[in-house]
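Researcher: I'm preparing a figure for a lab meeting and need a structural model of a single chain. I don't have an experimental structure, so a prediction will have to do for now. The sequence is pasted below. Please return the structure as tokens so I can convert it later.
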Amino acid sequence: MSEDACHAAVSVANPTAREIILKVIGAKRLAAWCDVSEATPYQWLSRNGDAQPIPLDYAAKVVASAKAEQLDIRTDILFPSLAGLLA
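Model: Understood. Here is the structure written out token by token.
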């Protein structure tokens, strides 16, 4: 598995939303995908935690952007209320 030079691989078998957002996707990349400020992903994490780490309004953008970049993300963790629907 190749690793993006600026993002460390998540070594945990069951990563948290914070690890996926900060280490796999990157807050800057997520902000660009969602067309929000770079501070917004951090605000989402501090306000919502793992319960709903990314607002559902951005689910389609995040999934489509990750797919376009061939980035494997855990949608069941990033969007727990949609688990099973985004598989």
